[in-house]
Amino acid sequence: MGGGSSAIAPEEQSNRSCEKRSKKSNTSSSTCCGCFSMDGHYSEDEEDIEKRTLREEARSWANNFERLLRHNVGQKVFQEFLQAQFSDENLRFWIEAEKYLNMTEEERMKRAKSLYEDFVSSISPCEVSLDAYHRNQIEKEMDTAPKNLFKNAQEYIYCLMYRDCFPRFLKSKLYKRLCR
To answer: b/e for 52-87, b at 16 or more Cβ within 10 A?
Structure first.
């Protein structure tokens, strides 16, 4: 390659820039950017890794309902299942009650009424399956909107979902497909 200029083959340029990125990120793995290993062999596809990881996570939900509810994908899949069963209002209430726990006093004062109207009121289009005791307990404290206003009702709904919806979810095609 005469003429004084040093021409570099495109593959070599790509490898050099990839090596630079690898050195900058201080990774000790043999892959530089996730697309191929430094020795020229293709590494496992990221999508395959994500699927395997999600499959393992989904399998763990069978023994841990709380983990299912706390996992972003788990919560979405469980909600999708409940929507197909026309019973996702309990999960939506549980999620909103979780958010309510972390609100400031001012935010709680605003949100308490809408949560009551959306889920607790007997005339709500999305009424959750609360007994009279829990409904009355909320109604008594609505004006002050304490942090724990929905806590007992949330725990009650959690138990209902755990005993009724969760076992059906674990038997569903949706869950089984996720575990494959």
So the answer is: eebeebbeebeeebeebbebeebeebbeebbeeeeb
Helix (H, G, I), strand (E, B) or coil at 52: helix
Residues 6+ apart with CB under 8 A from 130: 120, 153, 156, 157
Could you state, in chain order, the average pLDDT of each consecutive group of 10 residues for the chain (180 residues)? Answer: 46 39 37 39 56 88 96 96 95 98 95 97 95 97 96 98 97 95
Residue 20 counted as domain residue: no
With beta carbons less than 8 A apart as the criterion, state whether 108 and 142 touch. Answer: no
Residue with tokens 């009355």: 136
Residue 6 tokens, joined:
């040093």
Give how many domains the chain has, as a whole number.
1
Judge if pTM exceeds 0.85.
no
CATH code, domain with 134 = 1.10.167.10
Check if the beta carbon of residue 165 is closer than 8 Å to that of residue 92.
no
Q: Residue 47: is it exposed, middle or buried by C-beta count within 10 angstroms (0-12/13-18/19+)?
A: exposed
Which sign, positive or negative, has the C-alpha torsion 128, 164, 97, 145? positive
